């Protein structure tokens, strides 16, 4: 109402102004109504500002053409002075244009006073003004000009014109060197902001659509541009992007003339889904990860792929901006092209998303790289080269970086710094004793589920890599190699290039990618592994005492040189015979062993120790056989050898030697009687010995036979087993093989010599016979000394028979169960009735 | 805020001045007063073509009236 009143009043004023009639005029009211009616006429179209602008530009141009530059300049000047922020300017100018009446024919243009004031020409400067400003009173100003100055009226100058420098430019040939700003201003080009007016107007339209939910109509080209902008990760007016997750959603606020709304929505939603995947990749590449360097490599590779896509999208946009040939602008075609361009990266995004879900801190840290590996294998198998190459690049980038950790471990034997969470080796015990380094210092790092903490694709090689690194660490401890990284002839990084793989796989279409990858890694590892393992084996065998220890064992424990053993036993048994209380003194025994066994060049006397186990030693009143059982001959082992034997004491060998000593002692007790036997009186040839003597001699023979069988069994079994283990040590391919061979050797030794707890009943029976021999020996001695003496050996013989039967039966049973051939042979030998 | 109002009024006056000069260049025969009324009408939503048509009709009526008066005076 107020608006209508305002219009009415204004119309009244205008009417009065134009008509010149007063309000008292009787026709005033009718005319006024007519005027107001005319103003309310809504049959006219909205003012087109561009049309108005074009008309005005055309008018200015027409003024110029009709040689009315004054009008043209004046009009242009005033149009430029108009404020641009006025909303009704187009309408006002449209009104003036409508009312324009032949401006070039009947123009009574008189410049306004303001313009006249602005156009006042200043007085020209006079010489007096110039002299007042700059009087000619400088020194030297009237001096002759130096030669070389050329003026147009100088004859001499004409001759020298040929020598003058050509002028570089006709503009700004002289300038004030002090006023660089003025010089710079001459070269400035003022941009014409009017050229951007259309773009600003269009941006205004888009921003309006951006802020409102109403459906706005765009051109197909604008929609394509917005789609490309969105795919490049930039803000878009028709898509929203969630900053944290990169999820893209179509606003649903645009329509185009050339397609139905549902079709457009479908296409744009598909493209938004594509944008979501690309957005996730951008989000993933920006995640910070300071610890897992291989993840950073993968992020870098994916970032490179995204950059290539951005360039491709830019080329696609360029085709619309600067088309080389005519082409149809179609959102559907654009969608098809974009789908083809982005398919590999979309699939890559899905794979990484799946791998990232698995890659939680508690679970495997290699979820992404494992997922990429599976996808690469699958893509190669089904022949999808595009996806295969796209997935291959981040996979190999990650493997390259991870392989550097493995290379560091394999080459130096040391763990890479800051890799505890992502490396498959862990230093379990940094303060480990050297004798336990191989088995207990480094362990494989496993997840909570028991899986090795490494990518799945390298699992088949990890054990060898682990052993190689341990070998290297062992060599470093031995001091045989430098801990610095040696030069590699074949570096993993140069081999793990995607171009190399593509070339190899294209040459052999039947080879699978996983097989090729494994072979490549295996080749690199073998080159490094061979060096370390061989060097370690040589060092341990030859330089750090394993072979020399094995040789010493033969001489020390297994009586390889019978003369040496005899000299030891003679002295020892002599002390026992003299009932010396100190025969078991460790110091004296050690000295005896050093002097006897140390005579052999294969035994280092300084490493020999002899002691008796004070906890297990029987009372002094026990038989010597029992006391000899607890005699322990020790041989010091170097710490590298202890890594193989897993112990610093050769307990089984000591027990074997004690067993041998027991047998030798019994032999010692029985053998002097041979000299007595020679003195036995024989009255007549053919005279039979007395029954007791006969019995005693028979028993003696049986005992000697028994001791001989035992001795042969001990020495031959030990010699055979020891020869085998020495051969195995020379042929072993690693410390683990050596340790396993030694373990097996000791087990066989224990079993063959009845030293295990399970065989203790049989062993006790065997020792029982030896004790019986020890008890019998004096009696036999008496009988042989005096054949008239009567000694009943029946009980002794029965006891021996019983024990022997038990031993034979037990040995047979054990050999059948355990398969030990030596025990079966011993049983057969002991069962021989002669 | 009087200072802001003054500047607005000054800006409006300058705009009217410039429009008047353009109007003169285009030979619209609008005086300053009429032009200001036209500006107000347009700012109140009147269509410029409709307004131009009304002004032309009023002028045509004026001419007809002047011719009739001249004929009556001659008689």
From TrEMBL, chain A:
GO terms for molecular function: gamma-tubulin binding; microtubule minus-end binding. Keywords: Cytoplasm, Cytoskeleton, Microtubule. Residues 142-177 are annotated as: Disordered. Gene3D superfamilies: Gamma-tubulin complex, C-terminal domain (1.20.120.1900). Residues 546-832 form the Gamma tubulin complex component C-terminal domain. CDD domains: GCP5_NTD (cd22572). GO terms for biological process: cytoplasmic microtubule organization; meiotic cell cycle; microtubule nucleation; mitotic cell cycle; spindle assembly. Residues 65-145 form the Gamma-Tubulin ring complex non-core subunit mod21 N-terminal domain. Pfam families: GCP5-Mod21_N, GCP_C_terminal, GCP_N_terminal. GO terms for cellular component: gamma-tubulin complex; microtubule; spindle pole; spindle pole body. Residues 143-161 have a biased composition (Basic and acidic residues). InterPro entries: GCP, GCP5_N_ext, GCP_C, GCP_C_sf, GCP_N, Mod21_N. Residues 224-486 form the Gamma tubulin complex component protein N-terminal domain. It is found in: Cytoplasm, Cytoskeleton, Microtubule organizing center. Belongs to the TUBGCP family. This is Spindle pole body component. The lineage of its organism: Eukaryota, Fungi, Dikarya, Ascomycota, Pezizomycotina.
């Amino acid at each position: 109402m107020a608006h209508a009143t305002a219009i009415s009043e204004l119309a009244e004023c205008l009417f009065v102004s134009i008509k010149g009639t007063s309000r008292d005029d009787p026709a005033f009211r009718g005319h006024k109504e007519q005027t107001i009616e005319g103003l309310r006429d809504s049959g006219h179209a909205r003012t087109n500002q561009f049309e108005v602008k074009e008309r005005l530009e055309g008018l200015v141009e027409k003024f110029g053409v009709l040689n009315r530059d004054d009008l043209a300049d004046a009009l242009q000047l005033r149009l430029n002075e108009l404020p641009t922020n006025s909303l009704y300017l187009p309408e006002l100018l449209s009104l003036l244009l409508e009312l324009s009446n032949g401006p070039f024919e009947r123009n009574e243009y008189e410049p306004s006073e303001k313009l006249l004031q602005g156009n006042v020409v200043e007085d020209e400067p006079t010489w007096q003004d110039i002299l007042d400003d700059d009087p000619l009173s400088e020194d030297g100003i009237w001096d002759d000009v130096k030669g070389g100055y050329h003026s147009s009226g100088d004859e001499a100058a004409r001759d020298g014109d040929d020598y003058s420098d050509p002028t570089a430019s006709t503009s700004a040939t002289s300038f004030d060197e002090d006023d660089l700003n003025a010089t710079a201003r001459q070269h400035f080009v003022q941009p014409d902001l009017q050229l951007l007016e259309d773009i600003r107007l269009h941006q205004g339209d888009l921003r309006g659509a951006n802020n409102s939910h109403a459906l706005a109509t765009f051109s197909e080209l604008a929609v394509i541009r917005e789609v490309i902008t969105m795919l490049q990760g930039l803000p878009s007016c028709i898509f929203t992007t969630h900053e944290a997750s990169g999820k893209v959603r179509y606003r649903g606020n645009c329509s185009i003339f050339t397609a139905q709304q549902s079709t457009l929505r479908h296409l744009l939603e598909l493209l938004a889904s594509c944008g979501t995947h690309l957005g996730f990749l951008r989000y993933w590449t920006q995640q910070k990860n300071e610890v897992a360097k291989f993840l950073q490599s993968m992020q870098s590779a994916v970032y490179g792929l995204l950059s290539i896509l951005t360039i491709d999208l830019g080329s696609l946009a360029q085709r619309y901006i600067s088309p080389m040939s005519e082409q149809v602008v179609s959102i559907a075609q654009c969608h098809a092209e974009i789908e083809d361009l982005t398919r590999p990266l979309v699939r890559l995004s899905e794979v990484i998303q799946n791998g990232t879900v698995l890659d939680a801190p508690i679970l495997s840290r290699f979820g992404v790289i494992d997922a990429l590996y599976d996808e690469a294998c699958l893509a190669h198998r089904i022949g999808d080269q595009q996806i295969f190459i796209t997935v291959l690049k981040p996979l190999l980038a990650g493997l390259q970086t991870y392989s550097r950790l493995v290379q560091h471990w394999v080459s130096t034997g040391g763990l890479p710094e800051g890799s505890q969470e992502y490396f498959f080796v862990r230093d379990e015990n940094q303060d480990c004793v050297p004798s336990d380094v191989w088995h207990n210092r480094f362990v494989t790092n496993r997840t909570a589920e028991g899986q090795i903490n490494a990518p799945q694709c390298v699992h088949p090689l990890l054990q060898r890599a682990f052993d190689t690194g341990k070998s290297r660490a062992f060599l470093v401890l031995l001091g045989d190699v430098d801990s610095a990284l040696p030069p590699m002839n074949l570096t993993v990084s140069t081999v793990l290039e995607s171009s190399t793989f593509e070339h190899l796989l294209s040459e052999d279409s039947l080879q699978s990618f996983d097989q090729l990858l494994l072979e490549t890694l295996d080749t690199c590892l073998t080159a490094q592994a061979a060096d370390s393992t061989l060097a370690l084996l040589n060092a341990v065998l030859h330089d750090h005492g394993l072979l020399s220890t094995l040789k010493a064992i033969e001489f020390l424990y297994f009586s390889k040189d019978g003369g040496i053993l005899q000299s030891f036993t003679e002295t020892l048994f002599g002390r026992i015979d003299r009932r010396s209380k100190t025969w078991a003194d460790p110091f004296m025994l050690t000295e005896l062993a050093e002097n006897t066994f140390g005579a052999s060049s294969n035994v280092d006397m300084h490493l020999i120790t002899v002691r008796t186990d004070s906890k297990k030693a029987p009372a002094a009143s026990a038989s010597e056989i029992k006391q000899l059982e607890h005699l322990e001959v020790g041989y010091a082992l170097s710490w590298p050898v202890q890594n193989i034997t897993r112990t610093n004491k050769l307990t089984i060998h000591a027990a074997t030697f004690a067993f041998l000593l027991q047998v030798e002692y019994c032999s010692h007790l029985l053998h002097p009687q041979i000299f007595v036997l020679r003195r036995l009186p024989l009255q007549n040839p053919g005279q039979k010995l007395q029954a007791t003597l006969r019995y005693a001699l028979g028993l003696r023979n049986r005992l000697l036979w028994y001791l001989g069988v035992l001795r042969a069994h001990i020495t031959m079994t030990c010699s055979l087993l020891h020869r085998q283990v020495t051969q195995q040590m020379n042929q072993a391919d690693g410390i683990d093989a050596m340790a396993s061979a030694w373990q097996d050797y000791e087990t066989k030794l224990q079993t063959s010599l009845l030293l295990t707890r399970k065989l203790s009943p049989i062993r006790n029976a065997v020792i029982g016979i030896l004790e019986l021999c020890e008890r019998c020996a004096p009696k036999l001695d008496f009988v042989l000394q005096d054949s008239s003496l009567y000694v009943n050996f029946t009980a002794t013989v029965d006891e021996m028979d019983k024990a022997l039967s038990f031993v034979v039966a037990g040995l047979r049973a054990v050999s059948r169960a355990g398969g030990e051939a030596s025990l079966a042979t011993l049983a057969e030998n002991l069962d021989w009735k002669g | 805020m009087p200072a802001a109002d003054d500047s607005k009024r000054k800006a409006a006056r300058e705009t009217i001045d410039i429009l008047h000069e353009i109007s003169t260049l285009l030979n619209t025969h609008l005086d300053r007063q009429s032009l200001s009324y036209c500006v107000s009408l347009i700012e109140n939503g009147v269509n410029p073509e409709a307004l131009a048509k009304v002004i032309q009709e009023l002028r045509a009526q004026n001419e007809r009236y002047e011719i009739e008066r001249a004929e009556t005076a001659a008689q």
